[in-house]
TrEMBL record:
<dbReference type="InterPro" id="IPR023582">
    <property type="entry name" value="Impact"/>
</dbReference>
<comment type="similarity">
    <text>Belongs to the IMPACT family.</text>
</comment>
<protein>
    <submittedName>
        <fullName>IMPACT family protein</fullName>
    </submittedName>
</protein>
<dbReference type="GO" id="GO:0005737">
    <property type="term" value="C:cytoplasm"/>
</dbReference>
<feature type="domain" description="Impact N-terminal">
    <location>
        <begin position="20"/>
        <end position="125"/>
    </location>
</feature>
<dbReference type="InterPro" id="IPR020568">
    <property type="entry name" value="Ribosomal_Su5_D2-typ_SF"/>
</dbReference>
<dbReference type="GO" id="GO:0006446">
    <property type="term" value="P:regulation of translational initiation"/>
</dbReference>
<dbReference type="InterPro" id="IPR036956">
    <property type="entry name" value="Impact_N_sf"/>
</dbReference>
<dbReference type="InterPro" id="IPR020569">
    <property type="entry name" value="UPF0029_Impact_CS"/>
</dbReference>
<dbReference type="Pfam" id="PF01205">
    <property type="entry name" value="Impact_N"/>
</dbReference>
<dbReference type="InterPro" id="IPR001498">
    <property type="entry name" value="Impact_N"/>
</dbReference>
Amino acid sequence: MQAFSYRTIQQPTQGLYKEKGSKFLAFAYPVSSEAVIKKYLEALRKEYFDARHHCYAWMLGPDKQRFRAADDGEPNHSAGDPILGQIRSRDLTDVLVVVVRYFGGIKLGVGGLISAYRLAAEDALQQAIVDTREVRAAVTLQYDYGATPEVMRVVKEFDVAITAQEYTDGCVLRGTVALQTQPALAGKIDLLRALGVGVALLETGAPAS
């Protein structure tokens, strides 16, 4: 089912969990792409270069179909999956959570690791302020100069956020609109065209977020 809104965090947060001498430092970030995720991971590995493990999980997109969990040398599914589980349990997306572990000399066992990574991730996410954001679709309108008043009324009626405008032989307006109202916008443009107004909806598309 198409998602019209999604939940993410406003800003980076941190958490901490300690168990038998091991320290689990957790970091949660709002992210928009795998390139941004890579930069955060590289920065943490550089800053905490002496840590034994940098385990993480991320989720991208309003449909939550893009995700990854990484154990970074810990037993399979003992670190990344518990972190990802915390993201899912809060119904979040466009989020990266990294847990940096400093080994304390006493092995925790797989069950202990699962609990520690889960609790560290939970602590970081509990500090976060969660936003609910609408999914927006990209739209491009092409219109005659004479149709400008009608187009501007449409922009206001459908709360189109203008990102770029071009003026040559005609006019081109690029922007975004709430995905939920995109069909109604297309219907409005069709109606205007039927009434002889020189406007066309060239393309639409739903960005990932």
